[in-house]
């Protein structure tokens, strides 16, 4: 199912695909998981900049609504109903975008699925489905985008990750594992593209907790209502940061103070964070409201159109900080070197102070020996 909408151009649009010599006309972005939550906010953010946006997701009703949001923002929408777990369907979707608009400048792999519960409560089918969507869905999208981008030696692929790709938490083991797998796949691909001297760009964004509808429709084995682990962020500023990552293509882009803290903390003190997550992340993923285990959207798209935000708006932050992973690691390394240098200097001064009394005692003994002699 597809739906084309009229082409709307805006003066001053940041068409960085065209700026890099990719041809005339508005730039083209593809966003998976674009019918709700972060994906929808990203699609609208591209629309505000005058882009042509292909929206890929399950659920015709939500896709049509998201397309209207993109148009209202000033963009052009192409709706493609597809499950990212279906590799052939995603290949066909990419071909349809190129047939319609001639190229793909940016491909954002955002679609995800999760199941909440202890590892012992999960079934193999549930884990497989989370893997198929959250990990293999990004693999399928990447391969489909590469098929067209490599031919032009141009384009940017954005992998939407999570702080949980570095710092796993309890009760979402399948999701954490899938996000970590995406990071490993992306790192390998990046080296291969560099080996080829390819101009195709690859970036991965690591997200904090965001107020999206997923906490009302994700599969759950828990007996309390779900929530993102606080602090929670509004989806729109996070989406704007993802668009910046698409424009600048840093190796990684860490969005949100909690993301930066979690990643750097895991590098410095992983055992300490294990114990912290055992306490805080367990209860932090649930409210005090009772709930029943539910099937959720793991295998079937739920009805309705929840939009971009979830039910935590009153608790969500309207601003979000972001930094490239390279910069953050550099700051950590500089801090560590500074601490090491300080420790060395302190040890040297301490050693010098301890050496002085000994030197004086030696000199006193030498003077006494000369007097006796």
Automatic annotation (TrEMBL):
<dbReference type="InterPro" id="IPR036291">
    <property type="entry name" value="NAD(P)-bd_dom_sf"/>
</dbReference>
<feature type="transmembrane region" description="Helical">
    <location>
        <begin position="331"/>
        <end position="351"/>
    </location>
</feature>
<protein>
    <submittedName>
        <fullName>Short-subunit dehydrogenase</fullName>
    </submittedName>
</protein>
<keyword id="KW-1133">Transmembrane helix</keyword>
<comment type="similarity">
    <text>Belongs to the short-chain dehydrogenases/reductases (SDR) family.</text>
</comment>
<dbReference type="InterPro" id="IPR020904">
    <property type="entry name" value="Sc_DH/Rdtase_CS"/>
</dbReference>
<feature type="region of interest" description="Disordered">
    <location>
        <begin position="287"/>
        <end position="317"/>
    </location>
</feature>
<feature type="domain" description="Ketoreductase">
    <location>
        <begin position="27"/>
        <end position="220"/>
    </location>
</feature>
<keyword id="KW-0812">Transmembrane</keyword>
<dbReference type="GO" id="GO:0016020">
    <property type="term" value="C:membrane"/>
</dbReference>
<dbReference type="GO" id="GO:0016491">
    <property type="term" value="F:oxidoreductase activity"/>
</dbReference>
<dbReference type="InterPro" id="IPR002347">
    <property type="entry name" value="SDR_fam"/>
</dbReference>
<keyword id="KW-0560">Oxidoreductase</keyword>
<dbReference type="InterPro" id="IPR057326">
    <property type="entry name" value="KR_dom"/>
</dbReference>
<dbReference type="Pfam" id="PF00106">
    <property type="entry name" value="adh_short"/>
</dbReference>
<keyword id="KW-0472">Membrane</keyword>
């Amino acid at each position: 199912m597809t739906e084309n909408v009229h082409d709307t151009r805006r003066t001053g649009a940041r068409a960085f695909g065209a700026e890099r010599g990719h041809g005339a006309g508005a730039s083209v972005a593809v966003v998976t998981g674009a019918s709700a939550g972060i994906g929808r906010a990203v699609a609208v953010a591209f629309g505000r900049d005058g882009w042509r946006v292909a929206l890929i997701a399950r659920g015709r009703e939500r896709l049509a609504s998201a397309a209207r949001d993109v148009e209202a923002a000033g963009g052009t929408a192409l709706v493609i109903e597809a499950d990212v777990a279906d590799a052939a369907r995603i290949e066909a979707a990419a071909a349809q975008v190129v047939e319609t608009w001639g190229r793909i400048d940016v491909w954002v792999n955002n679609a995800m699925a999760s199941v909440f519960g202890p590892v012992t409560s999960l079934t193999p089918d549930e884990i497989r489905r989370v893997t198929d969507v959250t990990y293999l869905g990004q693999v399928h999208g990447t391969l489909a985008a590469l098929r067209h981008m490599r031919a032009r030696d141009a384009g940017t692929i954005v992998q939407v990750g999570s702080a949980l790709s570095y710092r796993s938490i309890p009760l979402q083991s399948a999701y954490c594992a899938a996000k970590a797998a995406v990071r490993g796949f992306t790192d390998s691909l990046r080296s291969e593209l560099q080996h080829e001297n390819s101009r195709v760009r690859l970036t991965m964004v690591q997200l904090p907790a965001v107020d999206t509808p997923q906490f009302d429709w994700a599969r759950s084995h828990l007996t309390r209502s779900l929530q993102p682990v606080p602090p929670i962020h509004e989806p729109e500023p996070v989406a704007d940061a993802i668009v910046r990552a698409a424009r600048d293509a840093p190796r990684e882009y860490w969005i949100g103070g909690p993301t930066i803290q979690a990643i750097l903390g895991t590098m410095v003190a992983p055992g300490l964070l294990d114990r912290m997550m055992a306490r805080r992340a367990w209860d932090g993923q649930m409210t005090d409201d009772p709930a029943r285990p539910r099937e959720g959207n793991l295998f079937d798209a739920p009805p309705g159109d929840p939009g971009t935000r979830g039910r935590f708006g009153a608790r969500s932050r309207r601003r979000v900080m972001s930094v490239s992973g390279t910069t953050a690691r550099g700051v950590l390394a500089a801090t560590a070197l500074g601490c090491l240098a300080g420790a060395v200097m302190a040890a040297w001064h301490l050693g010098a102070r301890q050496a002085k009394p000994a030197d004086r005692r030696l000199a006193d003994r030498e003077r006494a020996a000369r007097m006796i002699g």
